[in-house]
Amino acid sequence: MRVICTLREIQEELGLSKSDLERELKMDSRTIDKLLVDSAGDPWRLDREMLHRYFHFAHSHGFDPFRFEPQAMWRTFQNSEVTIYRGPKKADVPVENLLVRYFERLHCEIHSSTSPEGLEEAMRERNCVVIGSPKANEASEIALSLLCGCKPFTPQAKNRERLPVLFFGMATDGDRPSVLLQESSRHGIGLRPANAIERKFLRVDWFPIEKFGPYQGEGQDAAVIVACNRPLGTERDVTTIVIAGYTGLATFVAAQEAAYMEIPDLQPDAQPGQPCFTAMKFQYKKRKQTRQSLDNLRKLVQGSVEWGPPWEDFFS
After folding, report:
1. What is the number of other CB atoms lying within 10 angstroms of the CB of residue 28?
2. How far is CA 5 from CA 25, 65, 202, 277, 301, in A?
3. pLDDT per residue as tens, the chain (316 positions)
4. DSSP string over 50-107
5. What is the Cα 46 distance to its own chain's centre?
6. CB atoms within 10 A of CB 12
7. How far apart are CA 136 and CA 171, in angstroms?
8. Distance (Å, whole) CA 254 – CA 99
9. Residues 6+ apart with CB under 8 A from 276
10. CATH, domain 2-69, list 1.10.260.40, 1.25.40.10, 3.40.20.10, 3.40.80.10
11. Burial 129-138 (b: 16+ CB within 10 A, else e)
């Protein structure tokens, strides 16, 4: 989500010149230019007094000084129907709650399911968001497989090769095999960007259970977001989005970034029917586990989130 300065729209609606704006807002020409362009590459800054003048100016003419603009991938969600699919365990409940609050701001009609039954039909009929890795949520296995034209729960090499995203060093929580989870001594997400022959690797720090509890320090986690407009050949203008972290914390951070922060825009509208993806990594702080504290052992290091390449060479 971006915060958009509306000064350009106000100027055009009122027919004001730049000199008029300088006089009304008592700001210099360079500041006015930055507000009018509102570019992330050339950021503007207003002190409290300047911000107060701008708010007063905008409201006195009947305008909002800023507006929120959702990421491009959420376009079809506004004023529409959405179903959130999460796994049966409670780990992703905070992610679901976060998205529910966000979708309420988009005026969505919101449904929720912990069962993947009927997912394929739902993807053709309405907007769907699937949260959690294939390890904990069969809906992620099904949705990602269907979007990429392969069979879910079928880990043959030829079938798996169609997937641009694989999770390495992870085993499923259930009894069924997974096409998305690859056994490995390395832990992370294998990624094959569009038009690339070889995969890249997004490493995560993973500790065996006997080492995780006493460990105290920093580590790296990762997540991927896959989006597809008009999936599975549907003619309906709907979008399916999968937010899959390597861990529950990574899923939550990715969902929070996708809803409220600026990430490299996924543009599923550019190629309807074709899934596109971006990936993120971030640093976390892990504290020592005690009997009194079994939850929230890891915490995001603020400012550490990075989206997109460069990624490591595959298993370099």
Report:
1. 9
2. 14, 6, 35, 28, 29
3. 778 899 999 999 999 999 999 999 999 999 999 999 998 778 899 999 999 999 999 999 999 999 888 888 999 999 999 999 999 988 899 999 999 999 999 999 999 999 999 999 999 999 999 999 999 999 999 999 999 999 999 999 999 999 999 999 998 887 889 999 999 999 999 998 877 778 899 999 998 888 888 889 999 999 999 999 999 999 999 999 999 999 999 999 999 999 988 787 788 999 999 999 999 999 999 988 876 665 678 999 999 999 987 778 766 5
4. HHHHHHHHHHHTT--SEEEE--GGGGGGTTSEEEEE--SSGGGHHHHHHHHHHHHHTT
5. 29
6. 10
7. 9
8. 11
9. 194, 226, 227, 228, 266, 267, 268, 270
10. 1.10.260.40
11. bbbbbbbbbb
The domains of the chain are located at: 2-69, 72-313
Looking up tokens 């506004």 gives: 78
The whole-angstrom separation of Cα 225 and Cα 188 is 15
pTM exceeds 0.90: no
Task: Identify any residues that bridge with 84 across adjacent strands, giving them in sequence order.
Answer: 112, 129
Residue 247, CA atoms < 13 Å, CB-side half-sphere: 22
| Residue whose tokens read 């998205």 | 99
